[in-house]
Every structure is written in C-alpha cells, then in structure tokens.
Amino acid sequence: MLRHGAAPALTLVTGGALVAGGIAWLTGATLLADVFWAVGTVAALGPALWWVVRELVHGHTGVDLIAVLALAGTLAVREYLAGALVGLMLATGRWLESAAERRASRDLRALLERVPRSARRREGEQVRVVPLDQVAPGDLLVIGPGEVVPVDGRVASATAVLDESALTGEPRQTELPRDERVRSGVLNAGGAFELLATATERDSTYAEIVRLAQQASATSAPVVRLADRYAAWFVPLTLAVAAAAWLASSSPVRGVAVLVVATPCPLLLAAPVAIVSGLARASRQGVVVRDGGALERLGHARTVVLDKTGTLTTGRPRVTDVVAAPGRPVPDVLRFAASLDQYSPHVLARALVDEAHHRGMELTRPVDVTEEPGRGATGTVDGHRVTVGKRDAEEALPTWARAAENRARLDNAAVVWLTLDGTLTGAVLLRDPLRADAPRTLRRLRAAGIERLLMLTGDRAEPAREVAAVLGLDGVYAEQTPAQKVAAVRAERERAVTIMTGDGVNDAPALAVADIGVAMGAHGSSASSEAADVVLTTDRVDRLAEAVTIAARARRIAVQSALGGMLMSTAAMAAAALGLLPPAPGALLQEGIDVTVILNALRALRPDRGTRTVVAPDTEDLLRRFAAEHAELREVLEAVRKAADLLSADPGPAALAAVHDAQTLLTERLLPHERAEERELYPALAAALGGTEATATMSRTHSEIERLAQRISTHLALADERAGPGQEAAPRPEQLDDLRACLYGLHAVLRLHFTQEEESYFSLAP
C-alpha cells in the first residue's frame, strides 16, 4: 500500500523540496537551499528503505538497494541537490510504475462498469423490468437503443444493429437479421429490438468476461519487473565500481556520484511501461490477458498446441453440398429437410436451418413431428411425410445415393438423408469447415517466432490429419482424451515454453497445465476461459497471432529498454568514477536516461505495422460484401457438380438440361461476381497488399473460370445445333469427355479459388 499510495504524495514532497531549494539558491540563501534539498532526500530515503526491507523479507535483493545507498551517500557527503534529484527520480518512477499497474486492469474495469443489472422482459402485451438473475432461456427481452445486451440470445425482430467493440476491439457496427446469435455485452447501436434469451445471466458471454476481470483484479501480481533479474550482477557491479572509485581517489564523493548515476530508474520503469503498454494493445484487439507475467510468457513461447474443433475449425457444421435424386430440384431437398428440423436441438439440424435461411428459403411449419435420438426426425411438411437423419444400413442405395455416400467419405463429411413419402430423395453433406483466418494465423505465428505448431484433438485421425496437411502443422495428436491432452502438453513443455489454445470443457485441464493457456472465449465454455491465462473475446483465431506478436514485441522492447538503460548508466558510472561527473550533474544525466527509456518503452503502445495487413474501411465493406456473395454462390458450385455427375451417369437430355441450368447460373450469377471482384475488389486490395502482384494469381484464375464457362457454353451450342427436328438435344459422344472435364475442372477450380480468396482476402475484414 505504501508503494502505491505514497508515490504521488512522495513525488509532490520531493518535487516541492527541489523547487523550493532552487528558489532559495537563486536568491542567495544557499544554507536554506541545502535544508530544502536535504528534506527532499530524507523524505525519499524512508519509503525507499521500506521497499528494500520488504523485498529482503521476501528473499529478493532488487536494484532498489542502489537507490537507498545513493540517497544515504548524498546525505553523508552533503551533496543535497543530488540527493533531492535522486529522490524525485525515485518517487516519479514509483508513481509511473503504480500507474502502469493500474492501467493493466483499466480495460477490464471498464467491462465491469457496463454490466447490466436488470432486463426488460415481455410478458404478453406488457413489458416488465426484472432483475437480471430472473431471466431464463426462452424469455423474450426488449433491448432499447444504447442499451447493453444483458444475456446471450437470438434476434427475434426483423433486424438488430449492434456495436461489438467492447468484446471484439473492432469499432464497427454489425447488422444481424432475425434468428442470428447475439452475445451479451454488445451495445444496441440501432432501434429497439426483441431478443430471445438462450442463456441465463451466469452462463452468458459477458458474465464470463466479468468473472475473468474480477479474478484478474483479485489475483494479479505486480507487473513483472525485469530489472530484478538483472540485479544479481548489476548491484554488485555498481557497489564494486563505487568502492573502487572511493578507494582510488580517497574521495567518498566519487563513490556517491557512481551510486547516483547508477540509480536504477531506467530498470524500474522499462518493464512496467512496456509490458503494460502491451496489455493495453492486446485489450484493444479483443484479447484479455490476466497479468503482465502472462504477457511476458506469451512473448517467450516457442511452441503452440491448438485444439481442432472450435479453434482451427469453426466448431459449427456447415452444409457443403446438397444432392438430389434425378428429377428432384436441389433446393427442394434442403427446404424439406430444414422445415422438418426447425424444432430439433441437434447441431446438424441447426446447420440445415441456418443454411436454408441464408439462401432465403421460406420454411414450412411441420406437424406431427417425432424425433428418435441418434436416428433423426419424422413429420409432415406440405402434406408429405418427411424423414430426416440416418438411413437404414441394410437399405439398397440407388446410384446417385452411392455417389453421395462416397463423396461424404472422401470429404470426411457427415450425411443427412431425406426421405419423402417413403422414397429416398436427397442427401445433405455437412462438414465443420476450417476457419478462414486459420492459415493466416499460423503463418503469422511462425513469423512471430513460434517454432513448433501442433494439433491436439479428440477427433478421429483421418479428419485431423487432413486439417494438419492443409495448414502445414508440425504434428498431430488425434483421438485424445482430456488426460492424454494434459500429458501431451506436459511433454511439449519439457521442450519449450508452450501455449495451449482451446475452447471446450475438455480443453480446460490442458489449458491449466500449459505455460500459457489461451481460451476461445467468444463461443467457448466458461470452464476453458476460467482455466486460461489469455481469453480471445472475439470469435477469430487470428487474435492469437495478434496476441503473440504484441507480447513478443512488448517483451523485446522491455528488455531493450532495461539493457539500454543499464548500458547508459554503466557509461555514466565510468565517467563518475573518473571524476568527470559530479553527483548533481550525474543526477540530471540520469533523469535524461529515464526520459529516453520511457519514450522507448512507450513504443509498445503503437501497432507493429509490419505484422498485420490493415485495409481501409471502404475495402473492409467490399470484403464483407463479396464474402456474403461467396456463401450465396455455393448453389452454383452444387449445380456444376450435379450436372457433371448426371453427365457421367446418363449422358442424355436430362443431363444436358442440368448443364443448361448450371450454365445459366454461371452466366447470370457467378461470372458477374468474378468480374466485379476484378473491377472493384482487387484494385482496392492492391494498396494494402503492396501492389497488383499480390492479386495477379487470382486474376489468372478468373480468366480460367471464364474460359471454362465459355467452353461449356460452346458445347451446349454444338449439342443444340446437332439435335434433329423434333428431337431432344443431347451431347454427342465425341463431346462427353471434354464436357465432363470442363464441368469437373470448373467445380475444382471454383472450390479452390473460393477457399483461397476467403483465406487470403476475406479474413482481413474484422
């Protein structure tokens, strides 16, 4: 308490004594000036002595010892001005250090101040204000303009405009349509909207962040003082130089001068200012770090172990393909399946409904719905008896269904089968996709000094190895139990300082045993967040790379400042030992060293321009627009693949009709999208990516897509020209090989191209 509470008062006393002595000296009252300066020196000596004794009681011998000796020495040799300068220097250093420590938790305290205490709950036609602990899942809440969303939920109105900057660090507004998920803690930046609560106050995102803030406030140690690590050799060196100067010159003043210029304010200030600047930078990027020690360890890490589901992948299955039986429209398959699954709690059912909503489908309310856990649901939709889920293993599959099953196995995808009035009608393939920002994250981690990247997952070996191959990981631990995860992390800790990143309850033990546990807090479990040293409050894994980069830079600047301050102090010590630097000028020089160290340490507040690609706000809007169009264009990819499959199975008029449908989608939707990217998006990206060369390969892919689409169009024209009067058009035998190659090739090129754009470009947008 003395260290923190007395620092401002001590600064005022020592500063006042120094100024008063200066005024007395200017008026010729030299004796009175010495009295004032001596008072300032004694005022600083008492607290400094207390700090040293307290450290000695705890078994630490820090660099504060030099300051005490310097203050006592100036009194002994009557160099009162030098003593007053050292006292002011020490007091201001302590004040800055305590201010830095308070700054470490300021962003967290800001979260606490925004905690809602009540909510407005709709009860019939009435809206009542109720305590927040009375809100339950299923309650309908009214969120007014400017209010903080109190619990997690889904938008129950047509739309909601939200400011998520308190959680994500990105000062941008997001417009969410009906049924989209909303996290507690975000601010309503638009008109009033209704929210369907999906969690209680205690289980919501914001409460989790608040608990983290309270833990940090209760358990946070002082910001790590790197200076004390150097005290083991710097203190003996200083004492030896001071003693040698005294003995060689027979003048105690020289010894005191050495102590004055060695006063360790550069060391006391360097680490706190740099480390806390790093904490502030991380907080603004949506990364909550518990304390300065965690940030230091984060910057020293050389191994990163990542969970797969929810960390490297989104943790939410997504529809990758919809397959329909011959003669059945693909949209009908998804519409019937999603309509039936609207009331199912299953994660795959949620993915079907979300995909249907994203495609703008009008879903029908099902009736007579029953659900068998592990098998699926059955009900009536639009007068048809519909079943969605697993199929009977003994059931003979038609050719199209076998092809869908084979594709699912090759893609490590789950299959949801649709039966309509007792007939197998379609299949929906779902996968947990890689996060678009995952590849960029791993590249940035390697650039930040991470030497070993591993994946740790309870999933099967096949999908785990596929993800590892795509991302270029150094190793994979698959099919791991929580106990095995702990053992694996311990083994990695034996090699190097290790970060473990995860989001689930089963990751909590491994997070706790790692040198630094990092939790994906936006969608992760509270158990993982409570076990972690670092929490990513936004649902982006690239914030992990941001945190490591910030931590490494802050630590580097802290060490650089501490060592630089010591080198400058050592040079001044040599000058003082030779009699070239009396105590008072030495104290002034030491103040200059302090200023230099502080200015250098404050560089940690500024972003490192070389590590993150920053795009302009207008370009971000373009990225989000084209990313949304990509999601809508998945229907085109499905149509191209379906046409190719039909052409392989039965190259007749029906197959040619499917090719015509695909070509229409290509002409009317896909090609205009590619041309707009070339015209609007790529020139806008050139400035951020360093020139047009960065998008040149993508432009070449656009040309190949257009070439293949034109080739398919030519094939269609040839088939139509050769159809006789009254005959249905069908591809000629000599066309089949090339037309199939064009369709399958176009499907492959489009999938790769979309993935590349999403990873390299769209992931740049917050």
TrEMBL record:
Listed GO MF terms: ATP binding; ATP hydrolysis activity; ATPase-coupled monoatomic cation transmembrane transporter activity; cadmium ion transmembrane transporter activity; metal ion binding
Gene3D superfamilies on file: Calcium-transporting ATPase, cytoplasmic domain N, Calcium-transporting ATPase, cytoplasmic transduction domain A, HAD superfamily/HAD-like, nmb1532 protein domain like
UniProt-recorded name of the protein: ATPase P
Organism: Wenjunlia vitaminophila (Streptomyces vitaminophilus)
Superkingdom of the source species: Bacteria
Transmembrane segments: 6-28, 35-53, 65-96, 230-249, 255-280, 562-581
Annotated localization: Cell membrane
Pfam families in UniProt: E1-E2_ATPase, Hemerythrin, Hydrolase
Domain P-type ATPase A: 115-214
Entry keyword set: ATP-binding, Cell membrane, Membrane, Metal-binding, Nucleotide-binding, Translocase, Transmembrane, Transmembrane helix
Boundaries of every Hemerythrin-like domain copy: 623-764
Keyword Membrane belongs to the record: yes
Gene Ontology CC terms: plasma membrane
Family, per entry: Belongs to the cation transport ATPase (P-type) (TC 3.A.3) family. Type IB subfamily.
Membrane topology listed for this record: Multi-pass membrane protein
